[in-house]
Each structure stands twice: as C-alpha cells, then as structure tokens.
Amino acid sequence: MSYSILFDKDLKAQICNILLSGNTKTANQLFIELKKKNIFYTKRAIFKALSELLHKKIIVKYEDIYEINSEWLNLLSSDANKALMNLLEKNLLGKSVENKKHPCKCSYGNTLGFCNICLETACEHCSVKQMKHSNCTINCLNCQCGHSEGFCSECGNRICFGCGKEFWMHEHQFCNKKNDERQIAILEVDHQCWFSNTSEKYPDGIMLNSFSDQKDVNIGTHSGVVKIETKDKHKLLERILKQDIIKEAKLIHKSKDAFFIRTRASINKSVDEFTKNNNSILLNPVIAMDSKEQNLILSPSQKEMKALSKGLQEFGGKVRLICSERFNLNEINKIGNKQIKEFIEKVPKRELMEAMQKARIN
C-alpha cells in the first residue's frame, strides 16, 4: 500500500513519494510526474515545496537534481514504510494522519483501518473493531495486573497491546472476500449431559445461552448461562443442583418471565469440542427438550457435518439431523427452512456476525 493515497492533495508528500522510488529528478521532471498522476501545480509551487524540503534536510540537491537524503532516512527508521508514515505525519503535514479524512469504500464513513478478511477499507459503519492475541496460549503480565484493553475475539481471555493487537472485521454484507457457500443444520444430540438430562420433564424446553468462562481452565470446569422460562422455575433449579456433574448453579438475574442461572460443570466431551475438530461452529444458544439437545451448527460442507455426527455417535451419543440447508454467507436472511430461520433468530446478532466471518476464514 502507498500511504500517499491518503495525502494526494499535499504537494510535499507527493514529491517525497516520487523520490522515495530511488530515482533522482529535476524540478521539471517532478512537474511532469505530477501531471501524469493528475496532480496539477505550477512550477513556482514545486520550487517552493522543494526549498522547504531542502531546508528540513529531507531531500538533497546536486546541481539541478533532487533526491531523498539517505542520512535522514536512515536516522528516521530502518523500515521504509514507517519512515514514509513518519515523514508524512511529522515533517510534511505537521498534523496526525488521523486528521486526514479518506472515504471508506462503503461510502458511509471515513477509513479507520482495513478488514482483516478482505483487506479493503473499514469504518465504524461497515465494520467492528476487535482484538486478538498474537498467541492465544500466552499469559500476559499486563493483563493480570489489570491493564487489559478488552478480551481476545478468539479465546475470550483478557488482552492488552503487549500480547495482542487490534483489527477490523467487516460485517459480512460489506466483505469482498467471496467464499460464500456453507452448510447450516440443526443436530439433535442425545448423550449423557446434565443440561439435556435436566430437560426431561419440561416439554417446552430450556436454553443454554452461552459457554466459555476464562476461569474455567484453572478450575477444571466449563460454564454457561441457562435461561429458565418454565412456570416452576425453582423446581427446575433444584433438578440442576442435583446433577452430580454440576459444581455450581447460581442465580445471576431474574425477570418476571425468566431466571438466568450461571452454571459450572466438570469438563467432559462436548458438542462444542467436536464442532471445532471438524472446522465447524456451534452457535448459542443450545436448546434442550425431552432430554435431548438441539444444536445449530455451521460447517464448510455436508462432509464435515457427517464427520461431526459420526464422532458424537462413537463417543456414545445418539445423533439425528433434524434439518440442513446449503446457503450463501451474504444471504443468510434468504434461508428457506423454517426451523433453521427460527433458531437463527435466537442467536445474538454480534455472535452471528462473528460466526459468518470465522466461516470465511475456515
């Protein structure tokens, strides 16, 4: 990427961009080069800009030929891209690059970065800013001391600029990387699980809203938030607590119609684990009805979906494919299967967007 596209109206920046190619130029040659780029300045303006650059010792002159001052460039940075950015920011413009507005390709805002998937321009309208560890197994000292900047989009643990970096990710409809065809299905799984066992006497079903707690790795459990909407909520909570595998069940929120219970259970083989092993994604929530789980799964193809089902069966579960459909990641609203559409409506919007992008990467 040439940083000069952000500064196409600044004459000194354009002159330096031409000279940074390594070729020496006369003032007249610079005048011609600028005209080729559809940048029109008088020769008087060019001589004035050259005089200012000479005064700052950014360029040097031999007779009537100009070139970049190699000593200045070496002092500034060994990284040519960084040198150019510093040159544009500090020595030419006198103000930060952030103050230079460049329209995003979506046309709704100004560029703030580049999409991590398709590398096109990104802004707050078309994209979401996230953070990701350089290595998700890292234990960052700054994070442990309370200096975290947020949570890693990959592993969910705390992150700071010492152990990770920010990136932008387009919402799927704005992303230009067209790797679109995916398989989506509802799998019914009947296996030994406290969650599905608890639903045995509840024909309306119960929902497990979320998984993953960063403390789980240290204490050997996995966790979730169970949403209880039945009339006898207290009785269902008692049933959950009676499960041998349950280590904790705590009421964290209640409303007129529902209880939200934070649960911790001993780590065991889960549907989530099998989906990850087959390049697939398990979406929240999980719905349990009549001692069976219903899981919404996103896979690259039917092949991975079958491998996932086979793995669960070999582990001791019974698996039934309720429904499945091939769809375009950019047209999820056009899915025809009614059951899948109803399930998708229960998925948090942000999680659904992130799942669409992860599906592209996989």
Structure commentary:
With 362 residues, the chain is an alpha+beta fold. The chain folds into four domains: 3-99, Arc Repressor Mutant, subunit A, CATH 1.10.10.10; 113-174, no CATH class; 179-191 and 270-362, ACT domain (Alpha-Beta Plaits, 2-Layer Sandwich), CATH 3.30.70; 194-267, Gyrase A, domain 2 (2-Layer Sandwich). The protein has 13 helices and 17 strands. The strands form five sheets. Strands 13-14-12-11-15-16-10-17 form an eight-stranded antiparallel sheet, sandwiched between helices. Helix 10 crosses helix 11. It is elongated and about 90 Å long.
List the helices and strands and how they pair.
Blueprint: H1 11-19, E1 25-26, H2 27-36, H3 43-55, E2 59-62, E3 65-68, H4 70-76, H5 80-93, E4 113-114, E5 121-122, E6 127-133, H6 141-144, E7 150-151, E8 158-159, E9 164-170, E10 181-190, H7 194-198, E11 206-210, H8 216-219, E12 221-228, H9 233-242, E13 246-254, E14 259-266, H10 271-277, E15 281-289, E16 292-299, H11 302-314, E17 318-328, H12 338-344, H13 349-361
Antiparallel strand pairs: 1-3, 2-3, 4-5, 6-9, 7-8, 10-16, 10-17, 11-12, 11-15, 12-14, 13-14, 15-16
Helix pairs in contact: 2-3, 10-11
